[in-house]
Design brief:
- The strands form four sheets. Strands 3-2-1-9-10 form a five-stranded parallel beta sheet. A three-stranded antiparallel beta sheet has the order 5-6-7, with no helix packed on it. A two-stranded antiparallel ribbon has the order 4-8.
- Strand 6 and strand 7 form a beta hairpin.
- The chain folds into five domains: 142 residues, Rossmann fold; 69 residues, SH3 type barrels (Roll), CATH 2.30.30; 62 residues, no CATH class; 56 residues; 83 residues, Arc Repressor Mutant, subunit A, CATH 1.10.10.
- Helix 2 packs across helix 3 and helix 12 packs across helix 13.
- The chain is an alpha/beta fold.
- 46% of the residues lie in helices and 10% in strands.
- The radius of gyration is 29 Å and the shape is elongated.
- The protein starts with a helix and ends in a 5-residue tail after the last helix.
- The chain has 23 helices and twelve strands.
Length: 526
């Protein structure tokens, strides 16, 4: 354990860098509350999405890294802002028209359009919890509605009334002049209509702990700030929640970064200690535009899991969180193969290298063994040339290439074979463009056919790669990658492909000869 901890203390992996920064927070005295608290937030106006997964997965990676270098207990809280007013009716719910009369009511007071829970907020909270539980995250759930209405937030809310002017001063600096005229950190919840009101305060009585305002009809009302009758605007709520819970760490997207000083200062005004933060870059779609729930651009988590494992998604989430990354279907094969490369490397590494390996962080220091004896990219090409419509169509080739493999002994390979057939059908097949070879390419391919017909080296992938390499060199391809590109475009209908020697070993020498002859005859173009 000491070797692991020593390696972790010098690791350059970003979860350990963040964990060490967090540990410095308590290098003089341990936390009074007896633990270090991590938090993630969730707006339950819609269903959980791939960003939700990424935020919880990355926070968990830092939490586990912290537990490796410290004996201080940890907790992870997932906080749902279900007391927020419903600003618009979602289009993708049953009978959306029936929800219009509930606009601006807290999501926890809006009827559930699905008819399965006591409210729309409760329904979406249940979806979130099921979502997190499916991936095995360890967390505690807190509903903002319960947090406000049970009195758990009362002490901080009363303090917000006492220090109202100080908090307003922080907020007003960030607002346009027009907005300043009507802004208040407190949002009363109308006792009759149940709507969250965005109205200015006429008076805040710190001693009584009440706010006075005019409702939408001009009637003056006074409400206590406690007991869930008043909620905080979202920016003050952020800082107040940190103060109330004693949050030590929270990460969020770059779009929050300009608000960080506001959150921090409000937390401090309310008697809390600002937490450590981590700002990550946002995901982009295939056109380089920011992924948006309302636009529906980019991959959803269900779409990723249609074509690859959860672990491959965790791997992609691990990579360079502070670099904007495309989240589109074409990143999946590379993520799958890189994940398994790291799995295969892990057992051969020392402790220092292991804690820098992404799979250490994906699997909490105990990654499984990889049985992917055939790369995912190769399975895609095999699905292409074999015309496979299900994974059983690939297993005949796989067994010949790796006789020891079977769906029972290599479950990750079996799962990947199914994913590959699906991925090929949906994303590769529609975009294939075969072409005829040039004169130089034709001569080289005819030579390759002749050499393969005389081949007696079995299924030695490296030897076959050397053979293909030699043919390209003998026929004057410079750079040599143009030779391999020609093979891919003529035989696979794509500009990129696998190591061709490995492909021949998997598909079969005789089968490859037939494939090349089809390419030379123009049958593949037809």
């Amino acid at each position: 354990m000491s070797e692991l901890r020593d390696a972790a203390m010098s690791s350059k992996a970003w979860p350990f860098e963040e964990a060490r920064r967090l540990l410095k927070r308590y290098e003089k005295t341990p936390p009074e509350k007896g633990h270090v608290l991590f938090e993630t937030g969730y707006g339950p106006s819609g269903l959980p999405h791939i960003g939700t997964f990424g935020e919880v997965a990355r926070t968990t990676m830092i939490r586990r890294a912290f537990e490796t270098i410290s004996d201080i207990p940890t907790r992870l809280v997932c906080f749902s802002d279900d007391l927020d007013g419903m600003r618009k009716v979602p289009d993708n719910v049953p009978d959306p028209a029936a929800l219009r009369e509930h606009l601006q009511k807290p999501l926890s007071d809006v009827p559930d359009p699905y008819g399965t829970h006591e409210s729309f907020g409760a329904h979406n909270n249940a979806m979130l919890r099921r979502f997190l539980d499916t991936f095995g995250f360890e967390y505690e759930f807190i509903s903002a509605t319960e947090f406000y209405r049970s009195g758990r937030f009362d002490e901080v809310l009363l303090r917000a009334a006492e220090r109202y002017d100080d908090i307003m001063a922080v907020m007003l600096k960030s607002l346009r002049e027009e907005r300043q005229q009507t802004y208040s950190i407190f949002l009363p919840i109308h006792p009759e209509t149940g709507r969250v009101l965005y109205v200015p305060m006429k008076h805040v009585d710190a001693r009584a702990g009440t706010v006075t305002f005019d409702d939408e009809d001009g009637r003056e009302m006074t409400l206590p700030v406690t007991g869930g009758q008043v909620k905080l605007q979202w920016k003050p709520d952020f800082g107040a929640r940190w103060a109330a819970l004693g949050v030590d760490f929270e990460m969020y997207g770059k779009d929050h970064s300009t608000n960080t000083p506001i959150y921090d200062r409000i937390c401090e005004i309310l008697g809390g200690r600002k937490p450590e933060h981590y700002t990550y870059e946002l995901f982009l779609d295939e056109n380089g535009e920011k992924i948006s729930k309302s636009k529906g651009n980019g991959l959803t988590i269900d779409e990723w899991l249609e074509y690859a494992s959860t672990e491959s998604l965790s791997y992609y989430m691990y990579l360079k969180p502070r670099t904007a990354k495309r989240l589109s279907w074409d990143v999946i094969p590379k993520a799958v193969d890189e994940y398994h490369q790291q799995l295969r490397a892990f057992p051969t590494q020392d402790a220092a290298a292991q804690v820098n390996n992404p799979v250490w962080h994906i699997h909490d220091g105990a990654p499984p063994e990889s049985h992917m004896v055939v790369p995912f990219a190769m399975l895609l090409n095999l699905a292409s040339v074999a015309g496979a419509t299900d994974k059983d169509g690939l297993w005949g080739f796989i067994r010949r290439y790796a006789p020891e493999a079977s769906p029972e002994t290599h479950p990750d390979l079996d799962q990947a074979a199914g994913f590959a057939v699906r991925y090929f059908r949906d994303f590769v097949a529609p975009h294939r463009q075969f072409r005829l070879p040039t004169e130089q390419e034709r001569a080289a391919m005819e030579d390759l056919v002749a050499r393969l017909k005389e081949w007696e080296g079995g299924q030695d992938a490296e030897a076959l790669q050397t053979l293909v390499f030699s043919v390209g060199k003998d026929h004057g391809f410079d750079p040599l990658r143009n030779w391999f590109k020609a093979l891919y475009e003529v035989l696979l209908g794509a500009s990129q492909g696998p190591r061709f020697g490995g492909f021949i070993a998997l598909y079969g020498v005789d089968e490859t000869v037939v494939l090349i002859e089809k390419g030379l005859s123009g049958a593949l173009v037809d």
